[in-house]
Amino acid sequence: MAQQLEPIAKMVAQLSRLPGIGQKSAQRLAYHIISMPLEDVRELASAVYQGRKAIQYCQVCGNYATGETCSICENTRRHNGQICVVRDPRDVAAIERMRDFQGTYHVLHGTLSPMDGIGPEDIRIKELLSRLSDGAVKEVIIATNPDIEGEATASYIARLIKPMGLLVTRIAHGVPVGSDLEYADEITLAKAIEGRREM
Q: Do the Cβ atoms of 107 and 83 come closer than 8 Å?
């Protein structure tokens, strides 16, 4: 009996390595996969494998791409003098969902974190500076997360870029739309007051 369950245990162990999937969720997924028709399981496995194999990093911005460059970098209408600097490709997807930003991106693939041994040479800061050297970029929008690492990364990049004479902006932080002030923490409220604008 234990030998028959070993394949399930292996599936659970692999599934639980995924972010946000705990032991119970992995077990539920494993049992669901086992109940699927074999052809559906083959298609699922193939889609995951082929999808991972087909995706690479854009040689210009570092976003996900299926070729040498991503569709955003290939779109000449997006080259409007703005580069939005983000931590990873998921952040590009989040900003693209709002359908309002029409510039290009630069994906750092991480943030500065001395505690974890991640310094400037471990993320794509050198590549960003190289992209800014041709004079086509007028504004760098830093859109890293508002946590300690994201703020440290934003400050570091801003100090490097400002001497180049470029406009460096930071995305606003503050109270989310639809929320109540009484539930906001002090840091969020402080950022909201700090980032206020004229009406």
A: no
Calpha distance 38→54 (Å, rounded)? 24
| pLDDT tens figures, 35-45 | 999 999 999 99
- Which domains does the chain show, CATH number per domain? 2-54 (1.10.8.420), 77-180+186-192 (3.40.1360.10)
Question: What was the pLDDT predicted at 3?
Answer: 44
The identity of residue 82, as a single letter, is Q
Query: Are 78 and 135 a contacting pair, CB within 8 Å?
Result: no
How far apart CA 196 and CA 199 sit, in angstroms, is 9
Tokens of 113: 């974190």
**What span, in angstroms and rounded, lies between the C-alpha atoms of 146 and 169?**
14
Structure token digits, residue 75: 């779109």
